[in-house]
Write a structure and sequence with these properties.
The chain is an alpha+beta fold and 787 residues long. The chain contains 30 helices and ten strands. Strands 2-1-5-4-3 form a five-stranded antiparallel β-sheet, sandwiched between helices.
C-alpha cells in the first residue's frame, strides 16, 4: 500500500512538471519562429538594399545617357564612364533578375552605336527601373512585423519619389542639351512632379511614429541643392530662360544623391531594429530555458517535501479510518432503530429482525429467526417479482428497490417500500443481505381507492405529482406560455410571458394574440397559414416578431400545439415561446457590420481610381433592381447589392502609375491592369460567408463578356455567374455616364446605342432587355445619387 501511494504521488508530481515542460518548449519554438521570421526579413532588407543601389546607378546612367545622345558632339564624360562601372558592380551584388544585365548591356550597345534617340534610351532605362520598383512594392507584404513592414513600405514610397526626380533630371537634361523643351517633356515633368509629392506625403504618413528618421528626412529636404534644383526646374517650366544643362545635371544629381543618403539611413535604422529584435529573441530563448531549469528544480524539491510529509502522516489516516468504521457501526445501529430492518444470510434465512419488523408482522424474534422470508410472503405477489429480487441481489450483487405486499401473522396484509442491499466482503462475496423498509400501507390503500374511483393506474401518485410540478416550474422559468381558444383569443398566460410583453394580465386576457405581432406577419399571411395548419391538427413552428407594450420588437421562436378533447376536436392552442431577441439582434448587427465593411472596402477600391463613393452606391442599387426584375428572390437581390461594392477591390494592388494613367495602356500595363479581377477573387474567396462568396464571384467574373471575349478566363454565356452578369451591366452603365481620368461622361443616347450594339456580345441579352425596359427606374437612381 505504501509503494502504491508513492507511485501515485510521483505521477501527480510529473503532471505539472510535464505541463510546464510542454508550455516552455512551446515558448522556445515560438521565439525560434520569431527569430526565423526576423532572419527572413533581414534577407528581404539585404535584397532591397541591393535593388536600391542598382536603381540609383541606373537612374544616374539614364541621365548621362540622355545627355550624351541629345548632345550633337556625343562625348562621354568621365563620370558617365565611372557610373557604368558602378552599375556593373551593383548588378554583381544583385542575385535576382539575371536578365537585367543582358538588357542593360543591349541598351548600352545601342547607345554607343547611336541607334537610340535620347527619349528611347530614357524609356529603356525607365522601364527596367519601374520593374524593380514594382518588385520593391511587393516586399512589405512578405514581412510579418508591422514596424518592419512600415519601414519597407516607407522605402518603396521613397524609392518611387526618388525615381520621379530621376525622370525629371533625365527629361530636362535631354531638353536643355538639345535646347528644346517639347510639350511632351513639359507634360512628363509635371506628371513626375505630381507623383513625387504624393509619394513623399505617403512616406511621411507611414513613418509618423519614427520622429528621428522624419527629422533626418526634413533636414535632407531643406538642403541647398534640392532648393536650387526645384528653382531651376521652375525656371525651365514657367519662363523662357533655359538653365545651363551641365549645371542642371550636376545640381539634380546632388539632390538625388541626398535621397540615396536618406535610403541608406532608413536601411541602417531598419537593420539595427532587426538585429535588436534578433538579440531579444535569443535572450528570450536563453531566459526561458534557464527559467525552466530553475522551475523544474524547485518543483522537484517542493514535490519531494510534500510526498515526504504525506507519507509521514499515513498513520493519522489509519486512525481516522478506524474511527470511520466505528462511526459507520453507529449509523447501522441508528438505521436498525429507525426503520423496519431485517438481515438474512446468503441463503435468505433470517438472522436478525428489529422490533419494528416484529410489530408490523405480528411475529416474535424467536418465531422469525432461522426462518425464510416466505413466512410473511403474500399470495398476491407474483413469482416473477421474487425471481427479479434474487437475480438482482445475488447474481448482479446490486441493491433492489421496490414495493412488496406482505402477510401478517393474523392474516392481514400490509405494504412495504423495500430497499434490499447485498453486503460484500473484500473479495466481492455476499456476506449477508440487509433489507430496510418503510410502511406504505396507508398510501397504497389511498391509491387503490383513487384507482377504483377515477380509473387512474399510475404506479406512484406522489412521484407523478412531484414530476408534474417540476416540469411546470421548469417550463414557466424557461418559456413564455399562453393558451388561446380556436379564435386565437388569449385565455391563459404565465408570468414569463407577461414580463416579456410589458402588459398586465388583465390587458392580455381576452385579447387576440395576433394583435401582439408585428404588422408584417399579417401582410405576409403568416397568421392565416398558422390558423389553417392548426385547424388541420398540425404542430406549427415559426419565429414571430412580437411587439411589447412599448412597441419594441421581441423575437420569439414559437411552437403552437393544437389541443384536442377525447373526441379529437380542437378545443384550444398551446403556445410555447423562447425569447431569441438577443440572438436575432446580434445576427442583424453582424449582417449590418458585414455590409458596412464591404461597402467601405468597395469605396477604398474605387477611391484609388479617383471614383466617388456614390459610384458604388449607384451600382449596388442598379444591381438590386435588375436582379429583382430578372426574377431573383429578394434575399439574392440584396446579396448582390451588398456584394457589388467589392467588384473592383483588386485594384488596390495595381500600381498608381498604371491605375491612374490618363492615356491608353501598354500591353504589359494592360495585363497588370486585368489582374485586378483575379487578385480580388483571391482576397475574397474561401470564406464560409455567403456575402464574401458572392463578392468573390462578382470580383472574378464581372469583366467576362457574354460572347467569351472578356477576362480573366474568357468564359461565355450562362457559364458566367448571373451575379457577375448583373453587376457588369450596372457597372458599365454607371462608368459610361460618369467622368473618368481617361474619358468624359457619355450622353445617355450614346450609352443606349452602345448597349444595343453590345447585346449578346458584352452583355447578357435577356438581362439587357430587362434593363432597357425599366430604364426610368435606373435613371431615378442615377439622379438620386449624383456626384
Amino acid at each position: 500500500m505504501k509503494l502504491n501511494l508513492k507511485s501515485k504521488l510521483l505521477f501527480l508530481a510529473l503532471v505539472p512538471a510535464s505541463i510546464i515542460l510542454v508550455l516552455s518548449i512551446g515558448r522556445v519554438f515560438y521565439d525560434f519562429s520569431i527569430k526565423e521570421n526576423l532572419n527572413k526579413t533581414k534577407e528581404q532588407i539585404i535584397e532591397a538594399k541591393s535593388i536600391s543601389d542598382v536603381v540609383h546607378f541606373m537612374q544616374r546612367e539614364r541621365g548621362y545617357s540622355t545627355g550624351f545622345l541629345a548632345d550633337e558632339q556625343n562625348k562621354k564624360s568621365l563620370p558617365f564612364i565611372q557610373n557604368r562601372k558602378d552599375l556593373d558592380n551593383a548588378l554583381k551584388a544583385l542575385k535576382k533578375f539575371p536578365y537585367l544585365k543582358e538588357n542593360i548591356a543591349k541598351t548600352r550597345e545601342d547607345i554607343d552605336e547611336l541607334k537610340l534617340s535620347s527619349s528611347q534610351a530614357k524609356e529603356s532605362y525607365t522601364k527596367e527601373i519601374s520593374y524593380l520598383l514594382d518588385h520593391i512594392k511587393t516586399m512589405p507584404t512578405m514581412v510579418e512585423n508591422l514596424e518592419d513592414r512600415n519601414y519597407l513600405q516607407a522605402y518603396s514610397y521613397l524609392a518611387s519619389a526618388k525615381e520621379q526626380l530621376g525622370r525629371i533630371r533625365a527629361t530636362l537634361h535631354e531638353a536643355l542639351v538639345s535646347k528644346t523643351l517639347s510639350h511632351k517633356n513639359f507634360s512628363q515633368t509635371k506628371e513626375s512632379l505630381k507623383i513625387y509629392h504624393v509619394e513623399t506625403n505617403r512616406f511621411e504618413k507611414t513613418l509618423h511614429l519614427q520622429p528621428e528618421l522624419l527629422l533626418f528626412y526634413h533636414t535632407t529636404l531643406n538642403h541647398d541643392s534640392l532648393k536650387e534644383m526645384f528653382a531651376m526646374m521652375d525656371t525651365a517650366l514657367n519662363t523662357n530662360v533655359m538653365p545651363n544643362a551641365a549645371k542642371w545635371f550636376e545640381t539634380a544629381t546632388q539632390s538625388i544623391d541626398l535621397f540615396q543618403t536618406l535610403e541608406a539611413k532608413l536601411f541602417e535604422d531598419l537593420q539595427n531594429s532587426i538585429n535588436l529584435k534578433i538579440e531579444n529573441a535569443n535572450q528570450n530563448i536563453i531566459l526561458v530555458i534557464f527559467s525552466l531549469a530553475l522551475l523544474l528544480a524547485a518543483l522537484i524539491y517542493l514535490m519531494r517535501t510534500i510526498i515526504k510529509k504525506i507519507l509521514s502522516s499515513t498513520h493519522i489516516l489509519n486512525e481516522e479510518f478506524e474511527n470511520s468504521l466505528m462511526l459507520l457501526e453507529q449509523y447501522k445501529t441508528t438505521v436498525d432503530r429507525s426503520f423496519i430492518v431485517s438481515k438474512t444470510d446468503p441463503n435468505g434465512i433470517i438472522r436478525y429482525a428489529n422490533k419494528a419488523f416484529c410489530d408490523i408482522s405480528g411475529y416474535s424474534q424467536e418465531e422469525l429467526l432461522g426462518k425464510s422470508h416466505n413466512i410473511i410472503r403474500h399470495p398476491d405477489m407474483p413469482e416473477e417479482t421474487f425471481k427479479e429480487i434474487w437475480h438482482t441481489i445475488k447474481k448482479l450483487k446490486k441493491p433492489w428497490v421496490g414495493e412488496v405486499k406482505n402477510l401478517a401473522k393474523n392474516g392481514s396484509s400490509y405494504w412495504m417500500k423495500a430497499f434490499i442491499n447485498p453486503i460484500l466482503d473484500k473479495d466481492g462475496n455476499v456476506i449477508e443481505y440487509i433489507a430496510i423498509r418503510t410502511d406504505i400501507t396507508e398510501l397504497q390503500e389511498d391509491k387503490e381507492r383513487i384507482r377504483d374511483t377515477l380509473g387512474i393506474t399510475t404506479a406512484d401518485f406522489t412521484e407523478a405529482r412531484h414530476q408534474v410540478k417540476e416540469y411546470e416550474n421548469a417550463i414557466n422559468e424557461t418559456w413564455s406560455v399562453i393558451r388561446t381558444d380556436t379564435n386565437n383569443v388569449i385565455t391563459y398566460m404565465n408570468d414569463t410571458f407577461i414580463k416579456k410583453s410589458g402588459y398586465t394580465r388583465d390587458e392580455l386576457m381576452g385579447r387576440d394574440c395576433s394583435e401582439l405581432r408585428d404588422q408584417k406577419h399579417k401582410e405576409k399571411g403568416d397568421c392565416e397559414i398558422v390558423k389553417q395548419k392548426l385547424a388541420n391538427k398540425e404542430v406549427v413552428h415559426m419565429q414571430f416578431e412580437n411587439l411589447t407594450k412599448e412597441k419594441t420588437p421581441c423575437y420569439m421562436d414559437t411552437t403552437i400545439i393544437p389541443i384536442a378533447n377525447s373526441n379529437g376536436e380542437i378545443i384550444e392552442h398551446l403556445h410555447l415561446m423562447s425569447d431569441v431577441t438577443e440572438l436575432v439582434l446580434m445576427h442583424q448587427e453582424i449582417e449590418k457590420t458585414q455590409q458596412e465593411i464591404i461597402f467601405r472596402m468597395g469605396e477604398i477600391g474605387e477611391s484609388r481610381n479617383k471614383e466617388t463613393g456614390n459610384h458604388v452606391r449607384r451600382v449596388a442599387n442598379y444591381a438590386r433592381i435588375l436582379a429583382l426584375k430578372a426574377g431573383l428572390s429578394e434575399n439574392k437581390a440584396e446579396l448582390i447589392a451588398d456584394a457589388s461594392p467589392m467588384h473592383d477591390i483588386g485594384k488596390v494592388a495595381i500600381p498608381d502609375a498604371i491605375l491612374l494613367k490618363p492615356g491608353s495602356f501598354e500591353p504589359h500595363e494592360w495585363e497588370i491592369m486585368k489582374s485586378h479581377s483575379v487578385i480580388g477573387y483571391k482576397v475574397l474567396s474561401g470564406s464560409q460567408r455567403p456575402l464574401l462568396n458572392a463578392s468573390a464571384i462578382i470580383a472574378h467574373e464581372h469583366h467576362e463578356k457574354y460572347d467569351g471575349s472578356g477576362y480573366p478566363r474568357g468564359i461565355s454565356g450562362e457559364d458566367i455567374h448571373i451575379y457577375a452578369r448583373i453587376v457588369a451591366i450596372a457597372d458599365v452603365f454607371d462608368a459610361l455616364g460618369a467622368d473618368r481620368v481617361y474619358k468624359k461622361a457619355w450622353e445617355l443616347e450614346k450609352i443606349l446605342e452602345f448597349f444595343e450594339e453590345q447585346k449578346g456580345k458584352h452583355f447578357d441579352p435577356k438581362l439587357m432587355n430587362i434593363f432597357l425596359e425599366n430604364l426610368n427606374e435606373f435613371l431615378e437612381i442615377r439622379e438620386k445619387y449624383r456626384d
